[in-house]
Design brief:
Blueprint lengths: L7 E3 L2 H7 L4 H16 L5 E3 L6 E6 L2 E7 L4 E9 H5 L4
């Protein structure tokens, strides 16, 4: 199996600390989704409205917010439940 990365995702220490506060299954899904994205596999990603370089990846009720820094490099800027990321009141 070829494990060549199509994209590179930078996860800052602050986001890694934030992820460790969530249950193990959420941490596992986050890691799995980032690995699949880096390999170029299909994930639920869309460009955020009104932005040229911001994207979101959906993992159930959780969201990963990415900022595209280079052609194939992304920076994780936020992670959390949908209602916290977008500021919705549910």
């Amino acid at each position: 199996m070829n494990s060549t990365k199509k994209f590179s995702v930078v996860i800052p220490n602050s986001i890694e600390k934030l992820i460790k506060k969530y249950p193990f299954f959420v941490q596992s899904k986050f890691k799995d989704t980032i690995e699949r994205f880096e390999k170029g596999e299909r994930v639920d990603i869309i460009k955020k409205h009104g932005s040229d370089n911001e994207y979101r990846i959906r993992i159930g009720r959780y969201r990963i917010i990415l900022i595209k820094t280079k052609t194939t490099e992304f920076y994780v800027s936020d992670f959390g439940p949908r209602e916290n990321i977008y500021g919705f009141i549910i």
